[in-house]
ABC transporter substrate-binding protein (Streptomyces halstedii), 187 residues
Amino acid sequence: MTEQGVWRFTDDRGRLTTVERRPARVLAYIQAGATLWDYGIRPEGIFGSGHDGATPDLAKTGTLPLDTVDYRGAGGALDVDTLLRGDPDLVVAVSYGHGQVYGLDPDTAKHLEEQVPVVVIDVGQARTLDRVAARFEELALSLGGALDPGAEEGLAAATARLREVAGAGAGKPRVVALSPAGPDQVH
C-alpha cells in the first residue's frame, strides 16, 4: 500500500514494513524474484538456498533477464555483505512456515533485517497455491508492478488443456506434475 509516498506492506509473519517511499531496488529469493518479474518488477539481485549452486537454476528463474539481475549465490555461501552488494532497499524472501527466512542461515537473516526491510511470503504447505499467488500479486502491485492482461486467459486455457489431457483415455495419468520453463514450455 502506498499513501503520500509512504510504502507499507504486511508480510506473512504479520510484520508491517513501512518505508518513506516505494522500494525500487529489490533483492529476492530466486523464485520470488521470478514471480515479481512476471509483474514487471525487475529485482536488482537474487539469491538461492542451500539446494542451489554457484549459478542460478534455470528451472527456478522463469523468464528473469539473468544478464541484468545479479545472482548473489546460495545458502551457506551467503553473508550480509554479499546480499547487500547491490544496495537493495527491500528484500523479498519466502518461508515454509514459522516465519524463518528460507535459504539463509538464521543469523544471516537476522543481521540482514537489521540493515534492510525484509518482507516474507509464506509458501508452506499450510498455504494454497491461490493464496501464495494472491500474496505475490498484492506485493508486486504495491511495488508498482502491473497485471498481464492476457495472463488469466492463458492460465484458463492451460488449465483446460491439462484437464483434457489428464482425463483422456483408460491410461490416463493419476498424477501430473509440471514445472514451468518459460511461456510456452513445461517440464
User: Anything to note?
Assistant: Residues 34 and 61 are 5 Å apart (CA to CA). The mean pLDDT is 90.
